[in-house]
Amino acid sequence: MGYSRKLAWRNYLVEGLLILSSLLIILPLLIMIFGSFMTSTEVLKFSLRLPDKWMFSNYAEVFREGGLGRAFLNGMLITGISSILNILTSSAAAFILVRRETKLANFLYMFFFMGLIAPMSTITTIRVVQWMGFYGSITSVIFIYASLNAAFSVFLYSGFIRSIPKALDEVAFLEGANTFDVFFKIVTPLIIPVNATVAIMVFMSVWNDITIPLYFLTDSSDWTMPLSVYNFYGKYSRDWNLIFADLVLTSLPVFILYLFCQKYIVSGLTAGAVKG
Amino acid sequence: MKISKKLYSYYLIWPALLIYSIFFVLPALIGLFYSFTDWRLDRETIKFIGWDNFERIFTDKTLLLAMKNTCIFAVVTVLGKNLLGIALAVGLNMKLKSKNFLRAIFYSPSILSVLVISIVFTPMLRSEGTINRIFDAVGLHSLSQAWLTNPSIVIWTVAAVSIWQHTGFQMAIYLAGLQSISKDYYEAATIDGAGSWRSFVSITLPLLLPAININLMLTLIGGLKVFSEVFVLTGGGPGNASQVVGTIILRSFGEGSWGLGTAVNTLLFAAVTIIAIPLLIFMRRKEVSE
């Protein structure tokens, strides 16, 4: 009796402390969200308060001035295609690497794994893309993102595919199926949840990134949302209400994705990081 | 019955292997070669110059400072994100009424772009900004700082912003780890008279090792590769006070001194590999022996 009362008391204390510290996280985000609805003079205090008058027009203005429609479509195109390319190629590669179990397969697995650790060589990547003749294009950025995420995806897929019994493949092979059939008709349907996890992880990291567009997208009409925001931030450094509106708009796609796909993020982290 | 491994044809590996090799591995190998040359934008010919680039890196004050800052950032963020991440995860693994809500709040900044968070913090970190005003309001004037313009603390400020944003991600991995620990262990420990601290040290920490392992790797590698936070918050300034390896590479690229830039990159590559691989092997071994 005394013990459980002590426990309850401890829980209240922990809960109070955690709620207090969560304010540290919420406050800056609310300053951004409320600030995006203020006038340009009101926002300059950067303190937490509701706007005197809700300026929804800030959003319309940002959308016009910041060229965000174009940047949104560019971002969707780059993020969408590089995620799909990454999912298709990495899951197929992981399938063979896991099933082969030869020295070469082990070596190739480590070869991919190195990509999780090693930093990208930006300057020479630009050279390679120049030699291939598509430096500055959206295509080059799509391939670079697919290659940057290959290591992480192969790592995650391998963990899952290892848990799929080989017996399923055997039956199919006996009935005359080839590798291609087995992968697409048997393995692919079983790894749909992993595909979701990889898709979300890749989508978030690609959508939020500014480094690759900064180096590789030479034409501002190809820019993605965060890079357009960065440019806007430099140009409109006085109008913090517009800058905040711009930041909220950039964050909206990942925020919506997060709301709908929470369970895949958590299950992905559990399977990939903790069990893998 | 055993099926032949040959049935799993290697051609399914080729697309991933080609993309990864051409756009990631090949540039790394080429970079290794160019590190030893005087490759420049404004020069037609490329000459092999041995270790000159590396000698310059170790004698140039700015480049040395950039490496020191990268190390400070990496160490501070590894400690901050993991200690706070474990604390949050342990707290939010208890039976609290608001735990789902709080988990979502703490996780939320890590889904946003570093760019977004860095821009939001820029006005708040000014001398007359929100953070100093809060310190003044509660009577802690002495804590007020020029967070982004004082050369001796600026890299710590950038690290703090990164900890603020990403600790929630580490927390999520630790929570996943905690939930895989059976409650039976704690019950047995309580019956044996172990207090909460004792249970934490003898049960939680050892069984959390896989999660600790992956989090240390992720935060360390991410810390050494830091770029966007510094680029947006300070641009490497004031002066060169917050330059890191990532911003130096951008600067060498802009100046056209590509040989030097690739040498800096090669050094980063070597540093990350030398630190990460033994850590990885050591941690794996510890996990197995548990």
Compact description:
The complex is a heterodimer of chains A (276) and B (290). Chain A is an all-alpha fold. Chain A is built from 13 helices and no strands.
Give the C-level CATH assignment of chain B: Mainly Alpha
Helix-and-strand structural type of chain B: mainly alpha
End-to-end C-alpha gap of chain B: 35 Å
What is the CATH topology descriptor of chain B?
MetI-like fold
Terminal Cα span of chain A: 41 Å
Mind telling me which CATH architecture of the largest domain in chain A this is? Orthogonal Bundle
One letter per element, helices H and strands E, the order of chain A comes to HHHHHHHHHHHHH
Helical amount among residues of chain A, as a percent range? Answer: over 70%
For the record, the count of structural domains of chain B works out to 1
Number of strands of chain B: 0
**CATH homologous superfamily classification of the largest domain in chain A:** MetI-like
The second-level CATH architecture of chain B is Orthogonal Bundle
Q: Stretches of chain B where pLDDT falls below 50 for ≥5 residues? A: none
GO biological process, one term (chain B): transmembrane transport
Family (chain B): Belongs to the binding-protein-dependent transport system permease family.
InterPro entries (chain B): ABC_transporter_permease, MetI-like, MetI-like_sf
Domain ABC transmembrane type-1 (chain B): 67-281
